[in-house]
Design brief:
By secondary structure, this protein is α/β, with parallel strands linked by helices. It folds into two domains: about 210 residues, Aspartate Aminotransferase, domain 2; about 140 residues, Alpha-Beta Complex (Aspartate Aminotransferase, domain 1), CATH 3.90.1150. The chain has 16 helices and twelve strands. The strands form two sheets. Strands 1-7-6-5-4-2-3 form a seven-stranded mixed sheet, sandwiched between helices. A five-stranded mixed sheet has the order 8-9-12-11-10. The longest helix has about 35 residues. The protein is globular. The termini are far apart.
Length: about 400
């Protein structure tokens, strides 16, 4: 056995034995010892000199054909070592052969559609709502020449056609946290690839590829980065499917900047800790919100211990008060789109992230106009609850008598 093969075999054995917390810290760092560094370097080169132009051309050809490795990066649009380390680490966490990173989550979604539908001449998509509003809008816009049939998770098989190139689901779903049985959808899809948006769960709580998903998508902007300061997307998949995605990335220029690759890679190291801490707070908030007079209902996933290993740190609730008034009265919680940051974020899906989803379709998929979505951060529970409770009570005061208001605030 060659030394390289032996090293690869040893590394594969170590990965099978390693817990996910350890993988999150060490993934994508296999070459650092040989480089003589401790922190992964940021390679900002846009071009890579090669005196042997023939070999440079061969490398360019390899990249253009979707290869994972070549003799030189040649040019930053073709390959970047810093981004490649993040891809290696994410693939390890998702237990897939490969991962391909992009400049944004939507660039990643677009690449999957182009690779599975446009390039294969199968322009029909079956999708289960709700999905992230941007994904929903892209699928319904016809921008890429695809047509989309929206259905439920139990009716996927009925909507599959000969020209169906992709099935798209998100679980837990954005924004109402609906859960979808991935294996059930995959079985119905048959030979049609299935893309699962795993942004809410993260690889810490769910690994869709283990249940047959073809593509596992993340908006890296959210939990993977974790600090609200980097934009990026990534798709984990088999190596045979990664090649076409790399080709799309090269041809469209949808590359992830090296600094973004570095920040996303660094974010993975603390991902298990951040998810665990935010999840603890989310569970406490769900208990309080479920008993609040100003709250109509709360949506929070119940893990099955197999597909979904934890509930996560996303909460959705419908308020009996004016949702806009609730958000306006918050002092600590950040009123903003996005999620997965260290600070708690709240947004009104019907007005923002899902504004472009037709109102009737949005309501039918379980996203009413009074729903608020909360991404729990790392602040102390008492401070988050005090801010949220006061905003709910003050907003509800508009519809309550003074005695009802004081009774409400005293109760919470």
């Amino acid at each position: 056995m060659r030394k390289d093969d032996r090293n690869a075999d040893e590394m594969s054995t170590i990965r099978r034995m390693t817990r996910i917390e350890t993988m999150a810290v060490h993934g994508g760092r296999d070459d650092l010892t040989d480089l003589g560094v401790h922190a992964p370097p940021i390679d900002l080169s846009t071009t890579y000199p090669m005196a042997d132009q023939l070999k440079a051309g061969e490398a360019l050809q390899d990249w253009a054909e979707g290869a994972a490795h070549a003799k030189s990066p040649v040019y930053a649009r073709l390959h970047n070592p810093t981004v490649a380390r993040f891809e290696q680490a994410l693939a390890q966490l998702e237990a897939t052969d490969a991962a391909v990173a992009f400049g944004s989550g939507m660039a990643a979604v677009t690449a999957v559609l182009q690779a599975s539908c446009v390039m294969r001449g199968k322009p029909h998509v079956v999708a289960v709502r709700p999905l992230y509003g941007g994904t929903d809008h892209l699928l319904s816009s016809g921008l890429l020449g695809v047509t989309t049939t929206y259905t439920t998770q139990d009716e996927v098989a009925r909507e599959i056609r000969p020209d169906t190139g992709l099935v798209v689901i998100e679980t837990p779903a954005n924004p109402n946290l609906d859960l979808i049985d991935i294996a059930h959808v995959v079985a119905q899809a048959g030979d049609v690839p299935v893309m699962v948006d795993n942004t809410f769960a993260t690889p810490i709580l769910q690994n869709p590829a283990a249940f047959g998903a073809t593509y596992v998508l993340h908006s890296g902007t959210k939990y993977l980065g974790g600090h609200g300061d980097v934009l990026g997307g990534v798709v984990a998949c088999a190596e045979s499917l990664a090649g076409p995605l790399r080709q799309v990335r090269i041809l469209t220029g949808a590359v992830l900047h090296p600094l973004g690759g570095y920040l996303l890679h660094r974010g993975l190291a603390t991902l298990p800790l951040r998810v665990e801490a935010a999840q603890r707070t989310a569970k406490l908030l769900v208990e309080r919100l479920g008993n609040h007079d100003a709250v109509e209902f709360v949506r929070y996933p119940k893990p099955d211990g197999l597909q979904l290993r934890g509930s996560g740190a996303m909460i959705a609730f419908a308020t009996r008060a004016d949702p806009f008034d609730v958000v306006r009265r918050l002092k600590l919680i950040t009123p903003a789109v996005s999620l997965g940051s260290v600070d708690t974020l709240i947004e009104h899906p019907a007005a923002l992230t899902h504004r472009l989803v037709p109102g009737q379709a949005r309501e039918a998929s379980g996203v009413p106009a009074n729903l608020l979505r909360v991404s729990i951060g790392l602040e102390h529970f008492d401070d988050i609850w005090h801010d949220l409770n006061r905003a709910l009570c003050d907003a509800a005061y508009v519809k309550a008598s003074p005695s009802d208001y004081w009774a409400m605030t005293a109760a919470h």
